[in-house]
Amino acid sequence: MISSSADGSVKVYNLLNKELDYADKLNYTENDAMYFLCSLLHSSYVYGIAFFPDEAIEKEERLIIASACYDQKIRIWMVSLNGDGTYLSHNCHLEISIMDRPDKVI
Question: What confidence category does residue 63 fall into, taking pLDDT thresholds of 50, 70 and 90?
Answer without folding.
Answer: confident
